[in-house]
Amino acid sequence: MRAIVMDGYGGPEALRFDEDYPAPQAEAGQILIRVHASSVNPGVLKRAGGALRGVFPDPDFPYVPGSDFSGVVAATGPDVTRWNVGDQVYSFGGPGGSHAELTVADAGAVSRKPDGVSHGEAASLALAVQTAALVLQPADLRAGRTLAVLGAGGAVGNALVQLAHLRDIDVIAVASARSLDRLKALGGAGAFDSVDAVPEGVDAIVNALGPQLDALALRRIRRGGHLLTLNAPPPADLAAEVGVHARFVNALASRPGPLDDLHDDIDAGRIAPFVGRTFRLEDTAAAWALYASREIQGKIVIDSSPEGLGSTGSG
Ligand SMILES: NC(=O)c1ccc[n+]([C@@H]2O[C@H](COP(=O)([O-])OP(=O)(O)OC[C@H]3O[C@@H](n4cnc5c(N)ncnc54)[C@H](OP(=O)(O)O)[C@@H]3O)[C@@H](O)[C@H]2O)c1
User: Fold this and answer.
1) Ligand 1 atom closest to 248 (CA)
2) Tens digits of per-residue pLDDT, 130-186?
């Protein structure tokens, strides 16, 4: 199969395109998926660069990188009854890499692709929407509460601002200046380019930017409120001192129930994708380099389909 392969840790320069890489097989409980699209995820680049050693097991090189994907079931392994060949599915990650023509996933770890989005759009949404849904799980984070999102200009922020708006949660979006108008249009009650704009006493903060902001965030949250971090576990001692529930959200370790629950919202465009650019599979190294440059906004999609992606439906 056609695949992007890494022979060791590295960045874009460590990616090679292989036209004849061995295809994975669906084992018991797994499905084989013909990938139409995958997307460029910050976590994948961090893992490929070795920054997440100790968090994830070392890849068994050579290794196909890539996490989110959307495609069509090509084969089912023994014991799989939930999916049939030809079903359109998407997922935030599986045991196989997604920057390839074929990948495998556990049958229980994929979701039915909404017809209202293309494969490229679905691949751009999967991890971001799952993460946003997990962030909003605390039972007291309901209508009328205030949530601040640090790093709202990215894919998770795009999903989170829309999802919180749907639930009538007031969102304060903190992002770079270029994102502010877009975030307001998505339903951000306020959009600012500085964390200093987050008032004291908010009900919750999502920190998608990094642990250096955890202490500041904890001091802006009301007692009994929530800090949800996406990059590293929050400081437990300080959280206890200020009386805030703080936890690290790990979407990759979750099951796709929250994503399944949002099927109709994605299908109807109430949670809309934000795709910046699409690259062909063989140009994945250029896609990664563009992501690392931060010169682009919107998710970067990798097109693995033989005929090229369409705009909606099965494309
Ligand atoms: N724990 C989990 O399960 C989980 C799941 C998904 C994502 N994450 C993490 O959450 C963060 C956000 O994910 P995402 O998918 O939304 O990422 P993304 O689409 O790449 O967006 C990241 C945003 O952060 C801003 N930013 C500020 N400083 C940055 C820096 N030094 N490098 C890169 N971006 C920077 C960028 O805004 P501007 O460039 O526009 O200013 C960008 O819009 C990432 O760190 C990712 O690894 C964690």
Assistant:
1) 1
2) 999 999 998 789 999 999 999 999 999 999 999 999 999 999 999 999 999 999 999
> Ligand 1, residues 156, 181, 182, 249: which to mutate, most atoms within 8 A of Cβ?
156
Domain boundary assignment for the chain: 3-128+255-303, 133-252
CATH of domain 133-252: 3.40.50.720
3-state secondary structure 225-245: EEEEECCCCCCHHHHHHHCCE
Matching fold, domains 3-128+255-303 and 133-252: no
Question: Could you tell me the distance, in angstroms and rounded to a whole number, from the CA of residue 150 to the centre of ligand 1?
Answer: 9
Q: Backbone dihedral region of 137: left (phi > 0), alpha (psi from -120 to 50 degrees) or beta?
A: alpha
Distance 29 CA to ligand 1 centre (A): 33
Give the mutation target among 230, 249, 299 for probing the ligand 1 site: most ligand atoms within 8 A of CB.
Answer: 230
The binding-site residues of ligand 1, defined as CB within 6 angstroms of any ligand atom, are: 42-43, 127-128, 131, 151, 153-157, 175-176, 178-179, 208-209, 230-231, 249-252, 294, 297
pLDDT for 310 equals: 58
Q: What is the C-alpha to C-alpha distance for residues 96 and 170, in angstroms, rounded to an integer?
A: 38
Centroid of ligand 1 to alpha carbon of 63 (angstroms): 24
Residue 315 pLDDT greater than 70, yes or no:
no
* Global confidence as pTM: 0.95
Is the separation of the CB atoms in 299 and 276 below 8 Å? yes
Q: What is the mean pLDDT of residues 124-135?
A: 97
Asked if CATH classification 3.90.180.10 holds for the domain at 3-128+255-303, the reply, yes or no, is yes
| Cα-to-chain-centroid distance, residue 126 | 6
H/E stretch holding 248:
strand 245-248
